[in-house]
Every structure is written in structure tokens, then in C-alpha cells.
Amino acid sequence: MIENHSFCSMPDSLADDITLSLKAKGLYLLIKSCIEDAKFDFDHYKPALMAKCKEGSDAFDSTWKELKKAGYLKQRRISHGDSKGFHYEYELLDIADDSIPSFETLKGKGKSVPSRGRTE
User: Fold this and answer.
1) Residues with Cβ < 8 Å from 8, sequence gap 6 or more?
2) I need a labelling partner for 69 at 20 to 30 A (CA). Which of 3, 38, 89, 99 fits?
3) Ramachandran angles phi, psi of 112, nearest 5°
């Protein structure tokens, strides 16, 4: 009987990035494994990731911000149009990219609004 063992790999660029902590590299792998899981709850993305970790919210948040600051994790807050609600979308990059903001607010038809330094 052949067993199916799933796994995810880390890009060499991330593994070789000496500016990232081991915690950030581990969180990257956790995020990547969840992105590849069809059963993952993307409506509650960040809390669902936190539920898989031993660390408290402060440690998780600081590591989350580290990935964003390094340019590997991008977050967009998207308005629901005329209503007051919004939702988040996330993008995980294999190669850090500082040319794309780590946090961006989109209104209406994808129009970007300055984030005023916000880094959720």
C-alpha cells in the first residue's frame, strides 16, 4: 500500500534570507501549507493560522509583521463597495518584493487607497 504524504517546500530565496528569523521561516511554511489545503478556512485566515500555533497573539503578530516587512507576505483590505464592510486577501511570494506595498486598501473597483502606514 502506498501512502500519500503531503508536504510543502520552502523557496531557496527564503531559506537563504539571513534577515529572517527561524520563526518567520516556519510561519511562511505554515501559511504555504494552508494555501495549498482546499479545506482551509480562508474567511478567517489569520485566526485560523493562529489556531495552529503554540505562540500567543503577540508572538504570532510580530512574526506576521516580519514576513510582511521582508516583502514575502502581502495583505489587501478590500471594501465591499457601498457597504461599510470589507474583507482581506493575502498573497505569499516566493521571492521578496519591496515594490509591492505590504498592506493596501482597495475600494470599489480595485482602486488603491493610501494605507497611512497601517501594517495589519
Assistant:
1) 29, 32, 33, 36
2) 38
3) -80, 140
